[in-house]
Amino acid sequence: MAENQKNHNIAYARKKADAAREQRRAAREAVLTLLFETEYHEDDAPEAIFARAVEARDMDPKDRIIRKEYYAIMEKLSEIDVLLGHHAKGWRTDRLSRVSRAILRLGAYEVVFAEKIPAPVAINEAVELAKKYDDPKARAFINGVLNAIKKELEVSGGALPVVETPEAAEPEMSEIPVEEPDSDPVAEMEKTSEESSAEAE
């Protein structure tokens, strides 16, 4: 009887943990979409972009995880971009595709500033987002940049490096996708996801 209760408790705990993981993953994808949309409305306040997203899609305006993380990333955006530029091996963040840039910004924020998310988990989730939404060629690049940030933080004891904004340079990894022409942000993400899935089959 006691053994059955123990197994039941273990199964319940796993089910609860899986549900929490799926909820967090869904919130992460929503934040990614918001960051992607921000690319098309750079002059708009984050609050306006968030409000439009709530109206356009089935997004709960009271979802604290989505709102808090998106606003926090936007607040730290200049620091994040300098950090990404420092570790992108000659690539300026404005040379990356919008999807790659959004994934890197989200991943870098979680690695550096989200204390409750272990860095390996943040990096793994960023790679999973790249698998779902980005060009297959970008996955290793995203993984490499975020791991470089993680290692630097470990060496520095958690202190952010003081780096200058990188000078314009010829990209060293010509196969990473560059900026796409303007299009509908959500449709563009879905299109990229479908193309990546088709290539994987």
Would you kindly provide a written description of the structure presented here, covering whatever features stand out?
This protein is mainly α. The protein has a single domain, classed as N-utilizing Substance Protein B Homolog, Chain A (Orthogonal Bundle). Helices cover 67% and strands 0% of the residues. The chain is built from eight helices and no strands. It has helices spanning 2-38, 46-56, 64-75, 77-87, 98-112, 119-133, 139-156, 185-200. The longest helix is centred in the first third of the chain and has 37 residues, at 2-38. The chain starts with a helix and ends with a helix.
For this entry, give a set of tags.
mainly alpha; N-utilizing Substance Protein B Homolog, Chain A
Task: Give a brief description.
The protein has helices spanning 2-38, 46-56, 64-75, 77-87, 98-112, 119-133, 139-156, 185-200. It has 201 residues and is mainly α.
Number of strands: 0
How many individual helices?
Answer: 8
Q: What spatial form do the alpha-carbon principal axes imply?
A: globular
The CATH homologous superfamily is called NusB-like
